[in-house]
Amino acid sequence: DDYLGANELLIISGSNVLIEGYSEGINANHADITITGEITISAGDSATNGIYLNEGKLDAEEGTVEISGFRNGIVLNDTSSNVILGENTAIKNSTALGIDVVKGTLDFNGLVKDCPTGINASDGTLKVSGGTIENCERGIGVKKEKSVIVGGEANLTDNDSNIVLGEGSKIILEEDFCGTIGIVGSENQAGTA
What we know:
Blueprint: E1 2-6, E2 9-12, E3 17-22, E4 24-29, E5 32-35, E6 38-43, E7 49-54, E8 57-60, E9 64-68, E10 72-85, E11 89-92, E12 97-108, E13 111-113, E14 117-121, E15 125-128, E16 132-134, E17 138-142, E18 147-150, E19 155-157, E20 161-165, E21 170-173, E22 183-185
């Protein structure tokens, strides 16, 4: 039930590309994806992931991407997964996680809105270099002993909790940080971040 399955290279450069009604929008296994055009990915019944990335790269820094209605907007599931999201990336109305960094590296500068958890960093590297995470129950959840790097004009606003840190986790603020955040830390939440 995947719309696009990519195993090597996928370049989306067209205007108004629409993927809708599938359980997974793009399933990329060992693939590099570059999005320079405009793409909308919206969920079908029992939708799991807008983009699922295993051992690959997603570069949407120059593209316009909108993902809505999936359980998880984007999932990075391998240490070699690398995702760059630019300011024209919007993930909205996920029923669980806007972005799940299970493993790999995420450089975020887009929009995550109206999700239970905006970005979940389980065992990967998370850099929020700008963008907005808003109207989520939890803006960013960081698992214990992990860290999140925040810089640029990153804004976490109108979330029930902006950043929830697991036990031993830390936030690294870069010198160029000029956005707004609020932080919550709790041992009780360490296992759920």
